[in-house]
User: What shape does this take?
Amino acid sequence: MSLFPKQEMTANCRVSHGHRRNLLVAMCASSLLAETAFAQSPTNIFDPAATPAHSIFDLSMLVLAVTLVIFLVVGGLLLYALIRYRHRPENADREPAQVYGSNQIELSWTVIPILIVVTLFLSTTRVIMGTQAIPTPESAFNVTVIGHQFWWEYRYPKQGIVTANELHIPISDPAHPTPTYLTMSSADTDHSFWVPRLAGKTDVIPNKINTMWIDPQQPGLYLGQCAQYCGTQHAKMLLRVYAQTPADFAVWLNQQRQPAVQKFSGNPAAAEGQAVFMHNACINCHAISGTVSTGRFGPDLTHLPSRETIASGSIQNTPENLRKWIDDPNSMKPGCLMPAMHLNDHDLDVITAYLTQLR
Amino acid sequence: MSTTHAVEGIDGTLALQQSRPPLSVVHEWLTTVDHKKIGLMYITYALMFLIIGGVEATLMRIQLAVPHNHFVSPQVFNQLFTMHGTTMIFFVAMPIVFGWGNYLVPLMIGARDMAFPRLNAFSFWVSAFAGVLLYFSYLGASGLYAAGSAPDVGWFAYAPLTARVFSPGHSTDYWTLAVFLSGVGSIGTALNFVTTIICMRCKGMKMSRMPLLAWLYLVMSGLVFVTISPLTAAQIMLTMDRYLGSHFFDTQAGGSAVLWMHFFWIFGHPEVYVLILPSFAFINEIVPVFSRKAIFGYPTMVAASVGIGFISTSVWAHHMFSVGMGAAANTFFVFATMVISVPTGMKIFNWLATIWGGKVIFASPMLFCVGFLFQFLIAGLTGIMLGAAPFDWQLTNSYFVVAHFHYVIVGGILFAVFAAFYYWYPKVTGRMMSETLGKWHFWLFVIGFHLTFDFMHIPGLLGMPRRIYTYEAGRGWEGWNIIVSIGAIFQALGLLVFVYNLIQSYFKGKEAGHDPWDAWTLEWSTTSPPPDYNFAVLPTVNSRRPLWDLKHPEDPDSDYE
Amino acid sequence: MRDAATISIAAPQEAPWRLPYRGTVGMVCLIVAESAIFLIFVVAYIFYIGKSLTGPTPAQVLELPIFGTACLLSSSVTVHFAVAALRKGKLRGCTGWLAGTVLLGSIFLITTAREWYHLIYDEGLTIQTNLFGTTYYSLVGLHATHVVVGLVMLLLAFGFSLFGFVTEAHSERLETLSLYWHFVDAVWVVVFTVVYVLGR
Assistant: This one.
């Protein structure tokens, strides 16, 4: 009995061999590409720079190795079976031996997976405990993180500082660790704090307080972004974590602790800008310490020029960009919650002059 | 030699249909309670939404091909991923699975129809209405005087983003109501499956002699009852929050955003098992026929399916590892998630053992089954990676997860559904689909699938979160996103070939006869297409493969069971 | 020439082929699904016990609804007797017991309505007041909705029975309906325990 003409059979076999060869070439090419791309990414989870990310990396290597072996074994057997036991014209007449089952074989491929599962489970539990179930050390540096639509608020309770969008933390010396503990909640919808090179992500949820810790050992800028859909501009709620040497960090802290600059000798534009700012609705949403501007809905602007970016990391902090932003935020980040202030050109100029002088 | 003889009293030739007025045909289909017609309506409906959902995906892929693209606005993009997810799950995958079950289950257990034919029709029309309602949101959600607004809260609609204050207007309500109604239809259909399978099997068909497809639809339906209901409850709560001022998920009043997540995922995780179990059913029926061997380990397959059904209700919070549930809860859900891989693995091994020692015929149905086997294996393995909670803290909410679940749904479920089409199309229409076009479909789709979803894992590993309408340059995501977008084109082409094949074969396909594949279950004993009453005389069976017994009277299965 | 209908292999004598009644199986499925919905509302209730930020607490405003509960649970007994009567062909008995069931169920609804009136107008507790109000009204309200649906069906059955349309052949169908009613009562036992006993 032959349901299918012979020519079709051989054509199938040829195709499946060619498919295998192409697959091999594709795999080599993609792994080469992967090397190059991976090396350049500042958010590569396989390039850990802090202990939580390191422990995850180690676990992930184990899991990847185990799953790779399983894939090669099972996939290999499958491929072998499909080729070896394919229908050939010579043996078309009889049906093959009907085998209904085998208790021993089925037992073995129940027991072995159970053993694999137990191994993976135990390794995973170890990392969970090591990250989430350890006591907070005395030397921990504490920052409170509050997620907003669509920016990040950072408060340093012991130092009395409030800032936004660029998180500065001290590096941690392995000999005397000073991890940074982030206590997080949200003012509106769900967000998620994800800086891949430092740690896994932890969600930032209203009416719930979550804690995570990071301890980068190398100074530098670590990038990430919000990882829980929170509304229209979820995509541009970027994270910038500046890990600094103790000396640099002390300088930064000191600068942030100063109240806002209020005298602008030799800069009448800035002085006028300050007046315009304080008489506009800006003060309802923003805070500038030492002035009547005490709004908390939007980012604290006391030391705005000390930041490299505005709009939660998505726009470079230059006077031109700042002016454009104030004029119409939705033209640069459509759907963000800051309204266009409808200021005339002169007011825009002086307010920009004021804000860029705030050091 | 395969000559399943015609059941007495039925003329098996494809007689020319007498032409009837179109209105009469439409009326017949609108008022039918016949499980076969309802099944076909579900399937056609699902295919239409598959194309719509595919268009939504293509638009998203164009936007994401390069960083800072301006192809669509953030508002439109956010609507696109919400509609794409909701459409694909509720108005493609569920209906297609229910449609095939509706068509096949009564035929395979030797019954004339489902247990409650009118409920069957009602369930279909409610679900169909729900799909239309969801898309009406484009017109109606903010009032017809303004531009319409489709929901944009994501397919899992996390609170409190769905609260009135963060999602004004009615777009969220269209999502809630459409999905709610779809759930009502699902529960009705599941009720029908369970009752049919338990109460309407033909003589001699003990539960232990049912085709595995019937077992899997039974387990799936049981799962539907405990899966869809939590979502229904949560949506009632959400609507109360939005309209009656209640505080279920109102964090300002002490409510919990995490509670919505629990309720949603108590639905959401078993839901994917609701979708995969019928896919397993198709593989269970097709692989043995095209390996010319009985399924290996029938009792184990049943036990594994039931086990998967039960365990799947206990793993839901592996979607919430990053939410801050605490080490104890995280550990429990890691354990449950990893445990479910054991019965799932057993099924893969049993399929391997079925093929082993057989005579594999690579016709179109089997090609798609082979694709399923490799792809589901990989999907399961990336699932294990995600089940290791700390690894998940990096991978969750990134494109790695998007790649993983598309691997399951497209690489697994959709491939199994394609296999089902090629296998049962001859039974439904009486004609064979074109093998040549089938192979074109397979290869185009496989290439497109792997281009898109293999490479999609990489941006996830490089830190790209999901649900973003654009992304920064310089993070190493650019090249991969272009490759992913190109794969979509191949998949669209493959799908076009498939639809063309479906239509062309209806008119020009070779006549199929009763049993073109030389198969062993009851549906192949009646004509193609079956008459309205399915069987002239209801059969009596003595084993799991009644037609094998007929064709091999010297060595029937009943000797071994 | 053989076909699927007549397999002439020597088949062992099997027991007569009897499968369960469709109505019972279908109703059990519905009950499973509805139980899952109720379970979620019960979970929400338990989760939010003690978490209200303001407003009246259960201990302050709730009283045990003994009379209503007694009526509802008795109605399970009456509907059971209605089914038993119908099975024995006693149609007038069936009508009477059904009337009793409808009456007892209606009394339960009235006691719930009175309780809600008191809570809203005297104690100031609405669904908007606090988490307790939200979870209480939704859970008890969901149950009451199911009671209403059941009463409508029972009223229909009573009406058919009264005008002589119901016969002994319908006893399986009436039993299916009575299963639903027993389910509604069982849910009340759970709600009563969680809301009025544990929650206070």
